[in-house]
Design a protein that fits this description.
Elements lengths: L1 E8 L7 H4 L10 H4 L19 E5 L11 H8 L2 E6 L4 H9 L4 E3 L1 H6 L5 E5 L4 E4 L2 E4 L5 H9 L2 H9 L4
């Protein structure tokens, strides 16, 4: 799986889900409506930089705090193709995988990336290029690539139960 994207940098460490998607909007279940509130407590202007060709570049311990599936759901619906950072909060990282949004730990690549850097992620090959400079990242097991290709864990399981494995 190869994914190309333009970097949108979210500066800072220890950014929690409470500012990425504030609690007052948790009753919204329509993902297209969720996108209007992504980054609301952090920097709403970040939404203006998103599109179908973007990847978030984040710092350390990104997604700490409450376990809010709204964050990766709104990210995917906003056109974010993957998230790359120095490290992730465990529950946020797993929510990304479950919802079909690749999240990769790549500290050196995240440090190198700037706003609008060109990113090229090769999940199977275990590399990410930042403006043409390659960095090694842990390769993703084939079943995880299948989860991403299916659009998330629920769709992947449904496909397997239906015999499309």
């Amino acid at each position: 799986m190869i994914v190309e994207a333009r970097a949108v940098v979210v500066p800072g460490d220890d950014i929690d889900t409470d500012v990425l998607y504030p609690g007052e909007f948790l009753s919204i279940s329509d993902v297209s409506q969720m996108t209007k509130h992504l980054f609301e407590g952090l920097d709403p202007t970040l939404r203006d930089r998103l599109g179908g060709d973007t990847a978030l570049v984040v710092g350390a311990n990104f997604g700490a705090g409450s376990s809010r599936e709204h964050v990766p759901q709104a990210m995917r619906a906003s056109g974010i193709r993957f998230v790359m950072g120095r490290s992730f909060a465990r529950i946020f990282y797993r929510n990304c995988i479950n919802l079909g949004l690749p999240a990769l730990i790549a500290p050196e690549a995240a440090q190198r990336a700037r706003a609008d850097s060109e990113l090229r992620l090769d999940l199977a090959g275990g590399t990410i290029e930042v403006d043409g400079e390659p960095f090694a990242v842990p390769s993703v097991p084939p079943f995880m690539t299948e989860i991403f290709d299916a659009g998330g864990l629920v769709s992947w399981v449904r496909g397997r139960l239906a015999g499309r494995a």
